[in-house]
Amino acid sequence: MNKTAPVTRKQTLDKDLDKIVHVEEAASVLSRNLIAPGLGLLFLAFAGIWSSFYVGAGGNAVIIIAAAAIGAYMALNIGANDVANNVGPAVGAKALTMGGALVIAAIFESAGALLAGGDVVDTISKGIIAPEAVGDPTHFVLAMMAALLSSALWVNLATWIGAPVSTTHAVVGGVVGAGIAAAGFSAVNWPMMGNIALSWVISPAIGGVAAALVLLFIKTTIVYQDDKIASARRWLPLLIAFMAAAFTTYLVTKGLTHIISLSGMTLLAVAVASFFIVWALSHVHIRKQSEGMENRNQSLRKLFNLPLVISAALLSFAHGANDVANAVGPLAAIVSTAQSDSVASHVDIPLWVMLIGAIGISLGLLLFGPKLIQMVGDQITKLNPMRAFCVALSAAVTVIIASWFGLPISSTHTAVGAIFGVGFFREWYTANSKRRKAYLARKNGGQLKEAEKVEKRVTAEEIIRRKLVRRAHVQTIVAAWVTTVPVSAALSAAIFYVLTFVS
Q1: Do you know which InterPro entries this protein is assigned to (predicted)?
Q2: Domain residues for 118?
Q3: Element (H, E) at 408
Q4: pLDDT tens for residues 331-357?
Q5: Residue 279 placed within a domain
Q6: Interior/surface letters 219-242, b for 16+ CB within 10 angstroms, e for the rest
């Protein structure tokens, strides 16, 4: 027995040490998981403190400080959820690493919000709710605060469960619900709501059709050509130049209007000049990059990596311009009403308010964005650089056009519509394209029937699998789209009644 006693003590000591190690590991993991929420809370406190320097110590200072914190909370959630649609395709296609995507999106989201977000902010802040219908400034301020808080809570919940939802839907639903609670159905600008609702239907359709057309163009002119590399050298620079012309036109007409004002012909000349300059530069780059490449699709995909990165940056810029309104539009209305003690017919956007939105979106992306980026990039459908480029380019152009007209469309609808457009088009093209069958016949020595047999063996199971992936996710996505507006509206109305009772 004396011989076994030390062994027993040693085993007990080992078990105790193992327990301590496991506890330390668990504590370390838990502390890492708390870093992002902790930094988020610090940003909310910073937004409130920062706003206090601009509003002074008046009677409504507490309301404005609280609204600034809620606006910052909404901005964080926009970055965590909605930005995934911009860079997710690039990450899923492995054209960007997660770290690179986060940095690019943060930079261009902030630039879009600060340079080109004004018109959409104006639409959100006073286009949905008729201020004169609410009348009482206090009720109007509480309605905007309820709208901000309800939409932020809903988007936060959606991010936590891994569902990409439209933050535009959430904030518009919140504004409508609070407006109805404050002054009845007459307070809502229903014609404006009709236009916004119509854009929610049109935007995914336009995004899907545009993405399908771009993919058709790429397949027809590059993929199913005998000399793929030569075709890519000819046509890919044109796609990049088109994207550059669209970006230049948007930036000049929306982001730089306070610096320069161009006539229609001058603007056209600037767009054409940017087209040819970028075409020349990209032509040289593509030719140099393609030297020595094998004539196969795997090599061809590498040529799309840089254009895909550029298009992701463009889409991030457009998203920042369009969706910053969801955070700072109601906040700007609150600040204007609280400071003037009257419901203003025109809302000026203070720079410090716009900065809260821009910084919050970027910070939310960096702290909480990777989860949704992985979902959008990997789990909706299989993407390679060519398909992802089609998605990003078509979604970017759609969002840019909508923001150009000051219409707050859903970038989520547009991007997801583009993804499904690519997927459904590929299904149709695989089964029906005569050009594709002719290409396969040439590739197999003119044996069309043999080529079709090989194609059926190779792709039938893959097509079924891809269909199942899309259709499995479409129910979740549509359910999220349908649920967001009524849930945000109901939650906003409830919060408004609570705020009214407390105040």
Answers
A1: Phos_transporter
A2: 41-227+295-502
A3: none
A4: 888 888 887 777 665 667 788 888 898
A5: no
A6: bbbbbbbeebbebbbebbbbbbbb
